């Protein structure tokens, strides 16, 4: 009985947690560039690796009112194969988490001028609103999804969003988990110490940019996960159900 309880507890602890990442793309200098930062070496998860700003969803993210909402197609795709309670509010919280984490880690605000309808309890959102802006999601595009494989010390069900750099309305100094925050071309980014999933998503990004479809909401969204011991790249398309196929590229591991 003790072993059974231990196994059940282990499975509960390792259940993927909702997380979100924001890929900011700057096209003002001609060649597209993305913002990447290095995670501190003292962090338990991906120390020293270069990543896009992001992190896990906080319960407070579901309580923030949004006037400039995600496009309907983005909300529908975010709810495809959503584990647990499936709702537009939870889909919206994912995008809000990406905005909040980008503010906390990079000091960049994605929003519109104005005060909140009510004072939020979460300190991170209080700091966000203290600069005179409300979060805005209309310019975000749901871009990719990846679930950390079983057996890892931390597991996340991460949704990647992209947004144009001109959506940044304010910058503040911050001392978050990321250092060496810099803009990199996709070619430059390939030379950095990236987690495998970041590298894979970066290639997807390059393909979308080349096709002129970066911010289109009717483009299928790649979904990376492990099924029956194999890594898969499914596509969450405009239709309500994902079109599944196995990605045979050798770099589609999600564990490092």
Describe the structure.
This protein is 25% helix and 29% strand. The chain is α+β, with helices and mostly antiparallel strands and 256 residues long. It has a single domain, classed as Nucleoside Triphosphate Pyrophosphohydrolase, CATH 3.90.79. Strands 1, 2, 3, 4, 7, 8, 10, 11 and 12 form a 9-stranded mixed sheet that branches. A hairpin with a 2-residue loop joins strand 11 and strand 12 (230-236). The radius of gyration is 18 Å and the shape is globular. The model is unreliable at 1-11 and 240-252 (pLDDT under 50).
What do we call the CATH topology? Answer: Nucleoside Triphosphate Pyrophosphohydrolase
Q: What does the radius of gyration come to?
A: 18 Å
- Treating each run of at least 4 consecutive H or I residues as one helix, how many helices? 6
3D shape: globular
User: Helix share of residues?
Assistant: 25-40%
CATH homolog superfamily: Nucleoside Triphosphate Pyrophosphohydrolase
Mean model confidence by pLDDT: 86
Any idea how many domains?
Answer: 1
CATH architecture: Alpha-Beta Complex
Low-confidence stretches: 1-11, 240-252
Annotation, overall tally of beta strands: 12
What is the CA–CA distance across the termini? 34 Å
Major β-sheet annotation: 9 strands, mixed
Structural class: alpha+beta
Strand percentage: 25-35%
Order of SSEs: HEEEEHHEHEEEEEHHEE
| CATH level 1 class label | Alpha Beta
Short description:
With 256 residues, the chain is an alpha+beta fold. It has 6 helices and 12 strands.
């Amino acid at each position: 009985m003790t072993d059974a309880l231990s196994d059940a507890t282990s499975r509960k602890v390792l259940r993927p947690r909702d997380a979100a990442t924001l890929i900011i793309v700057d096209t003002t200098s001609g060649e597209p560039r993305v913002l990447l930062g290095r995670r501190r070496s003292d962090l338990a998860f991906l120390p020293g690796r270069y990543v896009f700003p992001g992190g896990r969803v906080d319960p407070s993210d579901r309580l923030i009112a949004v006037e400039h909402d995600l496009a309907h197609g983005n909300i529908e795709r975010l709810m495809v194969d959503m584990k647990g309670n499936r709702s537009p509010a939870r889909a919206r919280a994912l995008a809000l988490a990406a905005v909040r984490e980008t503010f906390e880690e990079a000091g960049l605000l994605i929003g519109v001028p104005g005060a909140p309808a009510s004072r939020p309890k979460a300190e991170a959102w209080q700091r966000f609103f203290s600069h005179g802006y409300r979060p805005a999601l209309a310019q975000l595009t749901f871009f990719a999804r990846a679930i950390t494989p079983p057996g890892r010390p931390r597991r996340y069900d991460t949704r990647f969003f992209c947004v144009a750099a001109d959506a940044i309305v304010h910058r503040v100094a911050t001392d978050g988990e990321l250092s060496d925050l810099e803009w990199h071309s996709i070619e430059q980014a390939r030379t950095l110490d990236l987690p495998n999933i970041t590298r894979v998503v970066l290639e997807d990004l390059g393909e979308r940019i080349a096709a002129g479809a970066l911010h289109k909401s009717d483009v299928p969204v790649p979904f990376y996960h492990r099924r029956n011991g194999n890594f898969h790249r499914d596509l969450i398309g405009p239709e309500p159900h994902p079109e599944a196929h196995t990605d045979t590229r050798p770099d589609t591991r999600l564990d490092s």
